[in-house]
C-alpha cells in the first residue's frame, strides 16, 4: 500500500496546509503531514481505510499514534474541523482507545491510561450509552452516524484514521503543571467544587429558566457556563454519584437571536460534539427551533446539552466565579 503518498496529496491540496503561523500564541508548528488542528498536531485522513491495527501502524509510520483524548476538548476541535471540511464528513475514524487487553477496561493506546467513560466522550444509541459491543467490539472510533461521538466497534471493520504526532504528545505535559499555580478565591457554601468549577446543583426546586436565573443571581452567582468538555464530564460524574434524575437548566439560550446560542455574558456556547446530544430522530441538538430557546442538561440523554422550552420546570446548575 502506498499510504504516505496519498496522505501527502491530501495535504498539498488542502487550503490550510501551507499556512504560516502568524500569531505565535494561537498556532503551533507541526511536522508535515501533521497539521495544527485546535493546537494539536493531527492527520485526519479519509483515503486510508483499514482495520484498527493497520491504521495504527500507518500512524506509527508517520511518527504518530492513533489520536488519544486524555483532554476531552480535542474531540470538539476534531468535530469542528470535520464540519468545516465537508470532504472529511463522510467516514468514521479509528481513535487510540481499546479494551482488548482487559474486557471493559478502556485504555488510551499511547500510555495505557484509563479512558474517561460516559459523557462527554461516548455516544448514545437507542437510549444506551456506548460502549455496548462487549467482547465483539474492542476498538474505539468516532461514529459519523452519531455526530462523531466515540463508539466501540469490531477492530477488523474498515474505518478512516486520525493520527496525532507523538512528538507533540510528549511535549504536552509541562503545560499542565503551569496552570495549577494560579491562586484562586474560595468556592463559598452552598456552592461546591465539581472538578475545576464552583457549582451548585439544585435538583429539588423545579422552575422555569428565567426564575432559576434569578435564584442563581440571588446567591451571588449565575447559571452554569460549561465550556470545557472535561468540566462537563466531572459534572456528569457528580450528577450520577448523587443520583440526580431530572433535567437541569444551564445559562445558555438563543432567546436574543434564533440559533445564536450564548451564555448570560454573551459569550458563545460551544456547539456540536462533545457538548450537544441527539434528539429522537437522530438530529443533533439544538433541534427545537423557535420553540426551544433555553439550554438544559437532559437526564434521559446522559446530561448532554438539549434545547427546551424556557417555561418548562427544571432544576438548575448555578455557578460562582472564582
Ligand atoms: C499519558 O499521556 C497523556 C498525553 O500526553 C498525558 O497527558 C498523561 O499525563 C500521560 N499519563 C501518564 C500516566 O503517563
UniProtKB/TrEMBL annotation:
Transmembrane segments: none annotated. The keyword Disulfide bond does not apply. InterPro entries: C-type_lectin-like (IPR001304), C-type_lectin-like/link_sf (IPR016186), CTDL_fold (IPR016187), DC-SIGN_domain-containing (IPR051004). Pfam families: Lectin_C. GO terms for molecular function: carbohydrate binding. Residues 1-21 form the signal peptide. Keywords: Lectin, Signal. It comes from the Eukaryota. Residues 37-164, 194-319 form the C-type lectin domain. The keyword Signal applies. SMART domains: CLECT. This is C-type lectin 2.
Amino acid at each position: 500500500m502506498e499510504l504516505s503518498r496519498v496522505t501527502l496529496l491530501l495535504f498539498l491540496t488542502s487550503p490550510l496546509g501551507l499556512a504560516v503561523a502568524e500569531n505565535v500564541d494561537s498556532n503551533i508548528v507541526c511536522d508535515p503531514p501533521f497539521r495544527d488542528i485546535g493546537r494539536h498536531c493531527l492527520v485526519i485522513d479519509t483515503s486510508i481505510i483499514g482495520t484498527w491495527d493497520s491504521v495504527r501502524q500507518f500512524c506509527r509510520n508517520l511518527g504518530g499514534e492513533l489520536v488519544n483524548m486524555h483532554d476531552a476538548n480535542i474531540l470538539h476541535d476534531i468535530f469542528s474541523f470535520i464540519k468545516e471540511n465537508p470532504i472529511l464528513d463522510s467516514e468514521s475514524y479509528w481513535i487510540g482507545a481499546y479494551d482488548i487487553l482487559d474486557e471493559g477496561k478502556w485504555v488510551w493506546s499511547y500510555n495505557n491510561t484509563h479512558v474517561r467513560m460516559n459523557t462527554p466522550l461516548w455516544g448514545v444509541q437507542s437510549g444506551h450509552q456506548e460502549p455496548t459491543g462487549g467482547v465483539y467490539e474492542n476498538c474505539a472510533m468516532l461514529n459519523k452516524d452519531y455526530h462523531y461521538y466515540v463508539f466501540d466497534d469490531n477492530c477488523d471493520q474498515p474505518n478512516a484514521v486520525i493520527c496525532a504526532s507523538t512528538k507533540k504528545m510528549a511535549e504536552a505535559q509541562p503545560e499542565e503543571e503551569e496552570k495549577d499555580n494560579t491562586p484562586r478565591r474560595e468556592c463559598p457554601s452552598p456552592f461546591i467544587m465539581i472538578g475545576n468549577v464552583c457549582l451548585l446543583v439544585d435538583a429539588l426546586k423545579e422552575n422555569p429558566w428565567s426564575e432559576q436565573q434569578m435564584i442563581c443571581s440571588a446567591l451571588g452567582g449565575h447559571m452554569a457556563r460549561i465550556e470545557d468538555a472535561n468540566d462537563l464530564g466531572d459534572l456528569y460524574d457528580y450528577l450520577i454519584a448523587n443520583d440526580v434524575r431530572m433535567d437541569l437548566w444551564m445559562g445558555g439560550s438563543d432567546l436574543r437571536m434564533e440559533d445564536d446560542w450564548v451564555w448570560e455574558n454573551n459569550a458563545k456556547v460551544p456547539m456540536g460534539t462533545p457538548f450537544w446530544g441527539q434528539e429522537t430522530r437522530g438530529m443533533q441538538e439544538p433541534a427545537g427551533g423557535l420553540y426551544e430557546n433555553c439550554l438544559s442538561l437532559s437526564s434521559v440523554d446522559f446530561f448532554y446539552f438539549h434545547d427546551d422550552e424556557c417555561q418548562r420546570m427544571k432544576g438548575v446548575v448555578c455557578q460562582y466565579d472564582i
